[in-house]
C-alpha cells in the first residue's frame, strides 16, 4: 500500500511540473505576441501635381514583427513618395534604389517620422526593409 501511495505522489509531482512548463510556454507565446511591432507605410509612384499630395494615395505595406525580425520586399514599379502610417517600438523602414535591398539605404524612416511625407522628383525606390531592434 505504501508503494502505491509513494508512486502516486511521485507521478503527481512530475505531472504538476509538466503542467507548469506548459503554462510557462503559453505565457512565453503571449509575451512574444505583446512585443510584436506593427509597422505600416504607404508608397506612391510619381503622379500628377505635387508628389507631396501622393503620400497616402498609393499602396500600403504592413508587417507585424518581433524584435530581431525583418520584412523585405520589392516595389514594382519604383516608388517616389513614402509616409509611415503606423510604427511601434524601435522599428524603422529602409528604402533602397535597387531591387532586393541593393545599392545601400537611400532613405531611412524611424518611428518618429510617422505621418511625415518623404518624396523625390522621380520614382527612386525599388525595394524596402522593415527592421525592429
UniProtKB/TrEMBL annotation:
<keyword id="KW-0732">Signal</keyword>
<protein>
    <submittedName>
        <fullName>Uncharacterized protein</fullName>
    </submittedName>
</protein>
<feature type="signal peptide">
    <location>
        <begin position="1"/>
        <end position="20"/>
    </location>
</feature>
Amino acid at each position: 500500500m505504501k508503494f502505491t501511495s509513494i508512486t502516486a505522489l511521485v507521478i503527481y509531482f512530475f505531472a504538476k511540473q509538466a503542467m507548469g512548463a506548459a503554462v510557462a510556454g503559453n505565457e512565453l507565446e503571449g509575451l512574444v505576441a505583446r512585443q510584436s511591432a506593427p509597422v505600416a507605410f504607404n508608397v506612391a509612384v510619381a503622379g500628377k501635381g505635387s508628389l507631396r499630395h501622393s503620400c497616402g494615395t498609393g499602396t500600403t505595406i504592413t508587417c507585424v514583427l518581433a524584435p530581431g525580425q525583418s520584412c523585405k520586399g520589392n516595389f514594382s514599379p519604383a516608388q517616389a513618395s513614402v509616409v509611415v502610417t503606423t510604427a511601434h517600438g524601435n522599428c524603422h523602414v529602409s528604402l533602397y534604389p535597387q531591387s532586393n535591398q541593393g545599392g545601400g539605404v537611400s532613405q531611412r524612416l524611424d518611428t518618429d517620422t510617422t505621418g511625415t511625407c518623404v518624396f523625390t522628383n522621380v520614382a527612386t525606390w525599388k525595394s524596402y526593409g522593415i527592421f525592429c531592434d
